[in-house]
Amino acid sequence: MTHFLIRRIFWAIFLFFVATIITYLIFWVIPANPAQLAAGHAASPEFLASIKHRLHLDQPIWVQYYYFLENLVVHGSLGRSFLTQQSVDSIIGKDAPVTASLVFGGAILWLSLSIPAGILSALRPRSIMDRITMTFVLIGISAHPVWIGLILSFVFGYKLGFTPIAGYCNFWPGAPGAQCEGPAQWAYHMILPWITFMILFAALYVRLVRASVMETMSEDYVRTARAKGASQGRVMIQHVLRNSLLPVVTILGMDLGLALGGAIFTETVFNLPGLGNQVIRAYNANDLPIITGVVVFSTCCVIAFNFIVDVTYGFLDPRIRLNN
Amino acid sequence: MRRKQLLSVFMLVVGAALLITAMTVAGASGATAKAGHSQAAKGGTLKLNESNEDFDYVDPQIAYRTDDWAMLSTTAMQLVGFPEKAGAAGSQLYPVAATAFPTVSKDGKTYTFHIRPGMKFSDGSLVNAASFQRAFERTLSPKMGSPVGVNIGLQDEIVGADAFFNGKAQSISGISAKGNTLTVHLTAPNATFVSQMGMQWFTATKANTPYTSQGQQTFASAGPYYISSRDPGRSTVLKRNPYYKGPRPANPDEIVFTPNVDPDQSLLQVKSGQSDLDIVGNVPTSSASLAAQYGVNKSRFKVGPTSCMSYMSMNNARPPFDNLALRKAVNWAIDRPAQVRLLGAYAGKRTDQILVPGIPGYKPYNVYALKGADVAKAKQVGGSAIASAPEINFVHTTSQSSTNRAQVAEYNLRQAGFKVKDVPTPATTFYQVVGARNTTYNMTSNGGWCADYFDPYDYINVIFNGRNIQANNNPFYSYFNNASFNKHMDAAALLSGAARAKAYAALDQELMVKYAPVVPYLINNDHFLTSARLKNWIYSAYFGMPYFNALTVG
How many domains does chain A have? Predict the structure, then answer.
C-alpha cells in the first residue's frame, strides 16, 4: 500500500508540473505582449519597460517560468490581477466557495435523483417508468446548460416568481456590501443553479447507474444470494448496490473536477460570482494572472480529486493496489 | 419489492430536501419585497444591474468610460459641472464647488477659481483648493498611467505640467492652491479649459490620496454619495455622504450596482422588479417589443440620445486610403441604414458627419448616402482607382457585434469593386495593431467617440489633430494629418461664442466634404427598461444614462 501511495503522489506532482508548464506557455508566452496588457494602452515606453522588468518578461522563458513556479510553490502566490492589483490567491479564495457550493450542491442533487431513478429503470427495463427516465436523460444530455438555465429562470423566476431570477447571496453573513446573506437566502438563490447544473450530470448518471445495476443483477453471486433465500432488500443493498455503485464513485471523483469547467455556463447565466464567471471576465479583460490562477487551481482540484479517488479505490478494492 | 421502492423513495426525499428547504425561503422573501413597496419617494435602495460589464476603474483620476463617469458623477464635487436637468439645460456647465466661473487674466492664460467654503468630504475633512490641485496631480502623474495625457493633451496646456507628466518635477509649477483659491497658469489661451474642468478627472480629491496606477476602490468623496464598498466583479455600493449639504439631489439612501449580469436575465429582473434598471440598456432585440408594450418615453421604456458618434476608420497614411477619391467612394458605398439595423430598434440616427446634436456648431448636412449604399456613385467617385487599389485589410475585433458590422461593410466594399481581406483580430492585440503608426491595417469597423465635454473641440481637434500621432498606442486610427486643416482647427479653437460655433460647423463640413478621413454612420441612442417603482427619470445625454442620484424608488 505504501508503494502504491508513493507512486500516486509522484504521479500527481508530475501532472502538476506538466499542467503548470502548459498553462504558462499558453497564457504568457503566446500572447503578443503581456507587459502591454498589464500596462494598459496609454502606457508610456518607460512605464511599459518597468512593467516588463517587474514581470520578468525581459528574461528568457525558462527564467520566467522559474519565477512563476517559485512564486507558486515557495510563496504560494499566483500573482496579482493586471486590472485591480488584487491578489489572485484572494480572488480565488473568495470565488472558489461559490463554485464549490454550486458543484457540491449540484452533485448531491444529481446523485439523489440519478441513483434511485437508475435503479428503478434497471429493475423494470422498458417499462413506462424506464421510458420516461430515458426521455429525461435524452433531454438532459442534449440541452445546453445556458438554455436550461434561461428557461428555468423564465418559468420559475419570472413567470411564477418562486425563485430569484439570478444573483447570489453569501452563506456566511458579514461581507461588506452584501445585499442578502445567510444560509436560507444562499440556498434560495442556489435552487435554479443547482437544478440547471444537476440536469446534465443526472442524465449521464442515470444511464450509468441503470447499466451498472443491470449488469450486476445478472452476476452469479446475486443469483446465488437469491437462491440462498436472501430478501430482495438484502440482495439489492448488500450485493447489487455495493458493487454497482463502485464505478459511480470513480466517475464522480473525476466529474467533480471536470464540473469546474461546466460551472462556467451556470455561473454566467445566474450571475454567480464563482471561478467560472471570474475566468470569463478575466478573459475579456486580458487579465492573464487571473486566467492562469484559475486554470492552475482547477488543474490542482482535478489532480486532487483523482488522487483521492485512486487512493480510496485502492482501499476499497484490493485488486487495484495489487495490480499496481 | 416494497422495501426496494422505499429505498428509492428515501433517496428521492434526500434529493428534494435541499429544494424544499430553499423553497420555503421564497415566501419570506416575497413578503419582504411586498413590504418594501410602501417606502417613500426619498430613501430606499436603488438596485442597478450592469449587464456583461463592470466599472473598469472607480478611481476618478483614471476612470474614463461613460459608465464609470455616470457612477462617479454622484460622488463628485467638481469646480464646474453639468446640472441634473433633462435636455439642453443638462449640457450647460455651472459652478459647483467654485463660487462662480473662474476669473481669467487679460492674456487668457491665468484662471482663478474660488472654492465655496465649508464643503466636506464623506469622512468629514474639509474641501479646499488643495483638493483640486491633487486632482490635477493625480491625473497627470506618471505613477498613475491615466489616459488623460494621450487623449486631451493636458500636459501641454498647463505651465509645468509636461515636466511633472514626464517625472522631471515633483509638482505642477503652473498650479497653486492657497486656502480656497486655486490658480492655474496655462501655456496658451484655451477656450475649452473651463469645459474640460467638467470632466470627472478634476473632482475634489483629498490631498493625501496616494498615486496608484491601478486606482483606488473606495475613498472619501465630497459629492452627494460616496463609495462605501466595492468588490470588483461582485458589487459596488454607494451611500449618502452625510456631510453633503448642497442642492444636488440625493434621493436613494443607497445605490447598489450588480455587475456582469447576463443581459437576458437582467431584462427579466427589471421586468419583475428584482432590479430597477440595467445601466447598459435593454437587450437590443427586445426594444421593439418593449416599445409596443410600454410606448417610448411614456412609462417604463426610455429612449434617449447620447453624445456618442460611431464611425469606421480608414488609414489615411497608406494606400489605398491615402487617395481622397477612394475614401469618398467608401463613404458612398457603406450602407448606413444596414449598420444601424444591426443594433436593433431605436439604436440611433444615421449620420455622415462628426458633430452630434447638442454640441455647439452641429448643423445637419447630408453629403453622402444616408438612405443606403449608393454603389453607382461610389464607383463613379472612385473611378479606375478602385480596380487598381491594393487589397483592403479590414481589421475588426472578434466580438459578435464587431464581426457583424465588418461583414456588412465588407460586402458593401466588394459591391463597389474593392478587393477586401477580412482580418478578425482578438481584442488582445487589436489596439496594438491599429494603434501603431506603421500599421498595415487599412480599415476597421471599430470606432466611436462620446463627448468628454460639450464642445466641438473635443470631437474635431481631439480626433483629427494629426500632430498628436505617436509611434504606438494611438487612440485614433485614421492617421489623418493635414496641414491646412490643422491650421483651421487651431484658429477655431481660439474663438468663443457664436463665432466658435460657426467656425466648427464649417470645419465639420470641410472635414467630410474635402477630406472624408472616416465613415461616420450613427449617432447613438441609449434605451432602457425601468422597474415599475422607478421614478424621477432625468436623462443625461452626456452620460447616456439617467442621473442615478436623482432617481427615486418609492
Answer: 2
C-alpha count within 13 angstroms, C-beta hemisphere, residue B288: 5
Residues A49 and A195 in one domain: no
| Whole-angstrom distance, CA of residue A36 vs CA of residue A57 | 11
Instruction: State whether residue B395 is helix, strand or coil.
Output: strand
Q: Which residues in B447-477 are b (16+ Cβ under 10 Å) and which e?
A: bebbbbbbbbbbbbbbbbbbebeeebbbbbb
Measured between beta carbons, which residues in chain A are less than 8 angstroms from residue B265?
A: 150, 153, 165-166, 269-271
Q: Does the predicted model carry a pTM greater than 0.90? A: no
- Range with lowest mean pLDDT among A101-115, B172-186, B306-320, B344-358: A101-115
Quick one: DSSP state of residue B125? P
- Are A161 and A45 members of one domain? no
Are residues A165 and A237 located together in one domain of the fold? yes
Minimum CA–CA partner of B271 in chain A:
A158
Q: Touching check for A169 and chain B: CB below 8 Å?
A: no
Q: Does any domain span residue A19? A: no
Domain assignment present for residue A106? The answer is yes
Cα–Cα distance list, B131 to A188, B137, B224 (Å): 46, 10, 17
**Closest Cα of chain A to B214: distance in Å?**
6
pLDDT surpasses 70 at A30: no
| Complex ipTM over 0.85 | no
Picking from A20, A48, A76, the residue at the C-terminal end of a domain is A76
Q: Which H helix or E strand runs over B376? A: helix B375-382
- Tens digits of per-residue pLDDT, B64-120? 889 999 999 999 999 999 999 998 888 889 999 999 999 999 999 999 999 999 999
Are A63 and A115 in a shared domain? Answer: no
For chain B, positions 475-504, list CB contacts with chain A under 8 A: 475
* CATH classification of the domain holding A196: 1.10.3720.10
Q: Which of A46, A76, A106 is the last residue of a domain?
A: A76
Q: State yes or no: pLDDT of A144 exceeds 80.
A: yes
The answer on A138 and A58 residing in a single domain is: no
Q: SS3 letters for B201-221?
A: HHECCCCCCCCCCCCCCCCCC
Residue A215: which domain range?
95-274
Q: Are A116 and A66 members of one domain?
A: no
Asked if pLDDT for residue B521 goes beyond 50, the answer is yes
User: Are A102 and A71 found together in one domain?
Assistant: no
A234 part of a folded domain = yes
* Rounded (5°) CA angle B219-B221-B225: 110
Q: What does the pLDDT look like over B144-170, one tens digit per residue?
A: 877 666 567 788 899 999 999 888 999
Q: Is the distance from CB of B221 to CB of B227 less than 8 angstroms?
A: yes
Instruction: Determine which helix (DSSP H) or strand (DSSP E) holds A189, and give its type and residue range.
Output: helix A183-217
Q: Which of B18, B26, B265 sits opposite A166 (nearest CB)?
A: B265
- pLDDT at site B223: 97
On whether residue A280 sits in a domain, the answer given is no
Do A129 and A54 reside in the same domain of the chain? no
B residues 107..146 contacting A (CB < 8 A): 142, 145-146
